[in-house]
Amino acid sequence: MKYVISRTFKFEAAHRLWKDYTGKCINNHGHSWLIKVHLEGESLDEKDMLIDFQELKVLKAWIDENLDHASLLWENDPMCQYIKASGQRIYVTKKNPTSEHIAEIVLSEAIRLFENTRIKVQCVEVNETCTTGAKIIP
Ligand SMILES: [Zn+2]
Q: Strand, coil or helix: what is 91?
């Protein structure tokens, strides 16, 4: 038997897909992003919780500091220079800032923040619109 808990986080950010991409998402545009992190484990703590939902707020703090109201841009996107020079918020990515890659980035943060001998990250889901999203499973 396994317990699975989740928490959803929301942030606003712009991105564009500059690397090897020719569709309409090559244009800079914004989304209200939703991130859902699922944690799993086989045993509960002394409070009979996998983890207190309040403890998941540290990931919200990381999202707010790094992704919220930022431009999420691939490191070789020429727009990086303009955003940096104009003093706007930017989060530079190693790959195209797709839902898949944002999920990958948040997964590594969730693992760093929450994993221990009792708790594992089961998956991270990222939705950039109400109809499209990606999930990554470690
Ligand atoms: Zn988009």
A: strand
Query: Which CATH number does the domain housing residue 75 bear?
Result: 3.30.479.10
Cα–Cα distance for residue pair 81/69, rounded to 1 Å: 17
Q: How many domains does the chain have?
A: 1
What distance in angstroms lies between residue 115's CA and the mean position of ligand 1's atoms? 30
CA distance 36 to 44: 21
pLDDT digits (tens, 9 = 90+) for 25-45: 999 999 999 999 999 999 999
Sign of CA pseudo-dihedral 64, 69, 74, 77: negative
pLDDT in tens, 77-125: 999 999 999 999 999 999 999 999 999 999 999 999 999 999 999 999 9
Domain that holds residue 64: 3-136
69 is catalytic: yes
State in Å: Cα 57 to ligand 1 middle: 25
**Of 12, 29, 69, 75, catalytic:** 69
Is 25 tagged catalytic? yes
